[in-house]
Amino acid sequence: MSDFPAASGAPTPGTPITPSTATSDYTRRLARLEQAGIKRLLPTQAPYRWNLQRLHLGRVLDIGCGLGRNLLNCGPGSVGVDHNPHSVGTCRERGLNAYTPDGLAGAPDCGPGSFDSLLLAHVLEHVDEETAASLLEQYLPLVKPRGSVVMITPQEVGYRSDATHIRWVGFEELRGHAARAGIAVGRTYSFPLPRPMGKVFPYNEFVLVGRVAA
């Protein structure tokens, strides 16, 4: 179990996603954070871009794509989906292919088995366990058999930095989600720094890489 209590206002099981993450204010907050502090001066996204690209994920379905930070670094034809229509609009303004869930359901070339990989980056900590399981159940069929699944969540300082984080999701919880969804775990690792740095470095991440069952 988590050492971190859920934030106040946590949704009950079945709630789609933390309501505050669906607003225009949340989209504006994400945009401000993109240019905050040292990010204006240095290529701070370079290690995370390299981490995605070295996994050779092919055509990716990016769940909870936000403003498209990761989608920008995914292979040709990759698609993002987000429950925040304002964030989806920003993705499209940036030339990215993104939909709301309803839009994705009717999108061309987004049917069962049409993606090489599924990416869930900084999503699971925003939702309760049952909602997380539902997201995987809903979107995994869109990935090819033996396709890749990548799940990424923040470590301690990053977790505490956002009031919309409601649930601690570390290695144990990631493996639990994988087991429940029938995902074969290939490896788990801390990125970009060793695990202890998550207590002082806000951008350290838990990463799980697995595969969909054949």
UniProtKB/TrEMBL annotation:
Protein name: Class I SAM-dependent methyltransferase
Keyword ATP-binding included in the entry's annotation: no
Superkingdom of the organism of origin: Bacteria
GO MF entry, a single one: methyltransferase activity
Positions of the UniProt region annotated as Disordered: 1-24
Enzyme Commission (EC) number: 2.1.-.-
Keywords, ordered alphabetically: Methyltransferase, S-adenosyl-L-methionine, Transferase
GO biological process: methylation
Signal peptide interval: none
Organism of provenance: Streptomyces caledonius
Gene3D superfamilies: Vaccinia Virus protein VP39
Database matches in Pfam families: Methyltransf_23
